[in-house]
Predict the structure.
Amino acid sequence: MLNIKAQLKTLPNSPGIYLFYNAKKELLYVGKATSLKNRVKSYFIGNQKSPRPIEAMIHEVVKIKTITTDSVLEAIILEGNYIKKFQPKYNVDWKDDKSWNYLYLTNAEFPKLKTIRQYELDKAQNKNNWKLEIGNWKFVYGPFPGLNTTLALKILHKLFYISRCEPQAKKPCFDFQLGYCLGVCVNKISPSEYQYKVIKPLVTFLSGHKQKLLITLKKEMLAASAQKNFEEAARLRDQILALKKIHAVALLDKEFLNIKTIDSTLKNFRIEAYDISNLGSSAKVGSLVVFNQHGPLKAAYRKFKIKTVVGQSDVDCLKEVLSRRFKNNWPTPDLILVDGGQPQVNAVKIIIRQRQLNVPVIGIAKGPLRKKNEFIFEPQNKPLATFIKTNQTLLIQARNEAHRFAVNYHHLVHKKESLASAFDKT
């Protein structure tokens, strides 16, 4: 068997789980990481100590095993399955009732996905009527130590179209307007269809069988296309793409990773609006402003000084801004809005496709006098059309804010460049 130093050299730089074994081949501990190489090395190299009690048993480890995953979300699910199945000594001994989280599906006509902490689970199960205490759940998954439950639910709701609304609602829910709900609120899907299209794929995924799920979804997509049900085929295609590229780094709490956690105000819905501002080919800048359904979230605003574009090209500037934006571990947007027409929308879609994301894109063309508000989007996307109609004021406000933020930054950069130029001439 390779010694620890040799084993550390073979670690992959990818997300997944790591398993520590002792000389008796007993599984001592299982953990998750965005980078298995960096995470596992941190236990054995240097004098820095992890704030977790695992440091106390690190001398017992003689073998390291790793299992890579496509995303952090899958690593979290795999870790939970291993803890549940093998009950590793140090995972169980150091169990934190506050940080150990579970996901559960309610046993309703249209099941909902919810979270529960370990101490709540223990309390409920110690009562004779514990099922009533929790809401009569159907499936429980976990434990997921240190899971950012708010973000996890948001990602899973989008990936699997899980309903957050109620049947017989007076109006369509916000998710339905954007295509993230299959229509529980407006009676467009029956309980049996919901079980087949939503719950079955979700259960397969949470059980750790993503590849099996992808094969099934591809078969269903081809079948829907053959039956000329192109809307359903497109939905399944988008779901497959989204599952292949899950952006979920921030799912791990900062206790376990040295990452910047998302702002707690960014809840429910995230609209990102972009604009480019320049004066000819000089002082080119871009802006990103963030809104939720209630208005601006100014703490999440970002500005970009264009670095690679030569000459004047708003489209190329926009591509640079989007490319740089997605290199950061910021929350994935639910909607992207751009100040511009079809060329700008197409530019955003190119970057979105490169990242294999499933995010709706809307452009608002203002015309030369900025008195026009023409919405640019895929006309066949009826839920998006409904969303735009319902939320025109909010979207125009976000577009105008992106323009204001870009112009203000442009003036600042132009002023600095002008002063620098004048100084060079003296």
Q: What stands out?
A: The chain has 15 helices and 13 strands. The chain has three domains: 4-93, 100-249, 271-423. The radius of gyration is 24 Å. Residues 203 and 413 are 51 Å apart (CA to CA).
